[in-house]
Amino acid sequence: xxxxxxxxxxxxxxxxxxxxxxxxxxxxxxxxxxxxxxxxxxxxxxxxxxxxxxxxxxxxxxxxxxxxxxxxxxxxxxxxxxxxxxxxxxxxxxxxxxxxxxxxxxxxxxxxxxxxxxxxxxxxxxxxxxxxxxxxxxxxxxxxxxxxxxxxxxxxxxxxxxxxxxxxxxxxxxxxxxxxxxxxxxxxxxxxxxxxxxxxxxxxxxxxxxxxxxxxxxxxxxxxxxxxxxxxxxxxxxxxxxxxxxxxxxxxxxxxxxxxxxxxxxx
Length: 267
Hints:
Immunoglobulin-like; alpha+beta; four-stranded antiparallel beta sheet; 267 residues
């Protein structure tokens, strides 16, 4: 009586394991055949990329991390739900009802920044306004490097003027105004250089040889030649979004390929 029951138990356990393995294989095959959809995480207030966000497909039990520019790809089908979280932003859940297509370049996901309320902080050093006036008048403030340079310039010019032995020269009592104007001009030049550098950094981030190679597979001199063919203006590159620039590159690439094919056929 004991042996037949034990044999029957083994057959039951074997059948359960076989069924579980078959079900796992079917699920794994289904997950491998799902289309990969490309996304980008961006700030909803200024459209800037959100780096290193965490994305989980709860239905497929799969998770990924976005890159430094917010890009990621995820297998997704109808009925799945994406859970997105990023530091400093509200968590978002996106259900899939068939709105995503693998043919699209990428879909932007706009995350809303968190706002934190900070209670009012009062920092008081002086007990009364009279005490503030008294201590402020006697306070020994440190001299900045610009002020030190200004003093050295004034001292140098004063010594130079005295050594000239000018007759009826008016005394220098109004300070050295030219130095202040010179510093102001230098500061404006520095600010202009910084603005120019930021402008070109933004342009190269959207439109560069690396981006062209990634989208068109063109490399080296051919990629540079195609960039000249695109003829995208600075104004357009500064105002257009990353998606708009990438779409424009792909459209121009179609024109570029068609033009090259026509030229080859004429030969």
